[in-house]
Amino acid sequence: MDVQQRAAARRQGGLPEVDVSTVDAFLADVDSAGAVAVLLSAGDPARFPEALDVAIVLPELITAFQGRLRGALIAREAEAELGARFGVRVQPSLILCRGTEPIGLIAKIQDWSVYVDRISRLIDRPVGAAATVVASIVPAHQTSGAGR
């Protein structure tokens, strides 16, 4: 990790920041350590205020999974390109990767139990199993009345 990456990690609550040129090295390091990578594609917090909530939850999830997860934040200027690579359609999203392959996405902010259940299922799933997306669940009282 170079000086610039260390500075970014300190600013982001200890999580490194990755971009197009550094993401593969990060994923390889995580894979060689026997862990699963979890990348946060946050988006613009002004447009997606819950991105700040997900950014707070991510380090807690890493701690809760006791070394099985290693996280990084995707640099804002790299979100479009890496989002396309990993299949991100909604921001904020957590992208879980084994090696360089995504094994699942968790979109939006979720209840703690949803994160624990989904991440457990994803990281315990056999290598080569299809990736999954967990969409956010919007309570009926928050919908705009549009048809379902």
Automatic annotation (TrEMBL):
<dbReference type="InterPro" id="IPR036249">
    <property type="entry name" value="Thioredoxin-like_sf"/>
</dbReference>
<dbReference type="Pfam" id="PF07449">
    <property type="entry name" value="HyaE"/>
</dbReference>
<comment type="similarity">
    <text>Belongs to the HupG/HyaE family.</text>
</comment>
<dbReference type="InterPro" id="IPR010893">
    <property type="entry name" value="NiFe-hyd_mat_HyaE"/>
</dbReference>
<protein>
    <recommendedName>
        <fullName>Hydrogenase expression/formation protein</fullName>
    </recommendedName>
</protein>
